[in-house]
Write a structure and sequence with these properties.
single chain, about 55 residues, mainly alpha, 2 helices, about 0% strand
Length: about 55
Amino acid sequence: MTEIIKILQKAIHPDKPRVIIADTIKGKGVSFLEGKKAWHGVAPSKEDYDKALKELG
């Protein structure tokens, strides 16, 4: 998380556009979401949402 904060702080320059590229894992930490391409851009049901929150703690 510290790396993300540092990058965001460096990117604050209102005179220039910025882009931040991150190598991430979709659904990280949720067994039925992690790395599953089928979930990309799909809203979870209330049941799946609650299950995901429970898994994340």
